[in-house]
From TrEMBL:
Keywords: DNA-binding, Phosphoprotein, Transcription, Transcription regulation. This is Response regulator. Residues 2-116 form the Response regulatory domain. The modification 4-aspartylphosphate is found at residue 51. It comes from Chitiniphilus purpureus.
């Protein structure tokens, strides 16, 4: 899943981006509020992780503009203070969660996973589609008791389809949810990943179907 990290401390931003990438996320990083506001106007993310003390445009204003544009993606606020006043102000502006610095990376990853899961209306960490199971904590897919071996991109495509809960996702929307700003490939690459996934799911009792004009849908057979 693709997330936006907005943090002006370059060392911390690099560390967080590296950790989140290792946890399986595609991460776009911005270092000031103005750039974050610009990219949020055109890009779709599963989650925004937003520092408050940003140059050019502070985190409060970035959040305020997001919600004014009716963008519903979950927002996790990073703050050096974590005062009650800051928490109340952030929640009133539409933040979904808070994390005060310093924090443990494992907690950040856990909160990110939980926010993404809840944004799809899912409360349980384990999700199923027929015999296919997905553990959103370990981020492991399995068919029955057997783990499913996937490349990172195959995993991302299948994760998007699984979290959509039986709703079709267009090729372009799929690509936007997994590809970073620096990705050199195009949305046509999705067709390759879907083809490979179909082969790996063949005979399992679950598959990816193409709905003309709508996109791809994961469903039990």
């Amino acid at each position: 899943m693709r997330i936006l990290l907005v943090e002006d401390n370059l060392t911390l931003a690099q560390s967080l981006s590296r950790a989140l990438t290792q946890a399986g996320f595609t991460v776009d990083t911005m270092h000031n509020g103005s750039d974050a506001d610009s990219v949020l106007r055109t890009q779709d993310y599963a989650l925004a992780i937003l520092d408050l003390g940003l140059p050019k445009l502070d985190g409060w204003e970035v959040l305020k503009r997001m919600r004014a544009r009716k963008q519903r993606m979950p927002v996790l606020i990073l703050t050096a203070h974590g005062s009650v006043e800051d928490r109340v102000r952030g929640l009133d502006l539409g933040a979904d969660d808070y994390l005060a610095k310093p924090f443990d990376l494992s907690e950040l990853e856990a909160r990110a996973r939980a926010l993404i899961r809840r944004s799809h209306g899912l409360e349980n960490a384990q999700i199923s589609c027929g015999p296919l199971w997905y553990d959103s904590i370990s981020r492991v897919f399995s068919i029955g008791d057997a783990p499913l071996s996937l490349t990172p991109r195959e995993h991302e495509v299948l994760e998007v389809l699984m979290l959509r809960g039986g709703k079709a996702v267009s090729k372009d929307a799929l690509w936007e949810k997994i590809a970073g700003l620096d990705d050199q490939a195009s949305a046509d690459a999705v067709e390759i990943y879907v083809h490979r996934l179909r082969k790996k799911l063949d005979g399992s009792g679950v598959g990816i179907v193409t709905l003309r004009g709508l996109g791809y849908l994961l469903q039990a057979k």
